[in-house]
Design a protein that fits this description.
With 201 residues, this protein is mostly helical. It has 7 helices and 6 strands.
Length: 201
């Protein structure tokens, strides 16, 4: 089993700490609005906590380390844990972090261009890692939860990205930033291609 690499480990720790701290340890009214990226010029009122969410520059970075609920956090961190170490080991920590953050930013940008509103979570970065993994190691087989059959990485990534695109267009499974998944994956793919790191095995 591949060891957890340094950047992956630190990203896991930061995501968990931010979620737990903002949700449970720092009872500061309105704190969470600094961790949700809101389309500039838009104001979103949340009646559950009486807070109006609007754009703050710090959200450009912080929203990638916050999650809507525990399940959202869990699935993103599992994806990062299982796919990230091999990608980081192959790219090196610097390029891996650049790819992860660039994918997260590209994801949010595409989502907010197509669906004005708010974005939160590491999904964009994780989908960038997924696309990078599938581009670098297209024929490595992955085991998906609930599907006990090994499937090549290129098919897993293509399937998940197509589902995100279809759901985004159709409006299915509301509450999920489907276009963010697509945007993150596209950025991950582009960077791996530009670095000529595709088809390593």
């Amino acid at each position: 089993m591949l060891r957890i690499t340094d950047v992956v480990k630190n990203l896991l720790i930061i995501n968990v700490i931010v979620f737990v701290a903002v949700r449970f340890l720092l009872p500061i009214p309105g704190l969470e609005r600094y961790f949700v990226l809101v389309f500039p010029g838009t104001e979103l009122y949340d009646p559950t906590d009486g807070v109006t969410y609007s754009f703050e520059p710090v959200q450009i970075i912080t929203h990638m380390f916050m999650h809507g609920d525990f399940r959202h956090l869990l699935f993103n961190m599992l994806g990062l844990l299982f796919l990230g170490p091999l990608v980081e080991q192959s790219l090196g920590p610097k390029r891996f972090l650049i790819m992860y953050l660039a994918s997260g930013l590209a994801a949010s940008l595409l989502q907010m261009i197509l669906v004005k509103g708010a974005v939160v979570g590491a999904s964009g970065g994780v989908y960038g890692v997924l696309a990078a993994f599938a581009t670098m190691f297209p024929n490595l087989e992955l085991m998906l939860m609930f599907i006990p059959i090994p499937i090549k990485a290129k098919y897993v990534a293509t399937g998940l990205i197509l589902i995100g695109l279809i759901m985004g267009i159709s409006g299915g499974m509301s509450g999920i930033a489907h276009y963010a998944h697509v945007g993150g994956a596209v950025m991950g793919f582009i960077l791996i291609k530009s670095w000529k790191m595709d088809n390593l095995r």
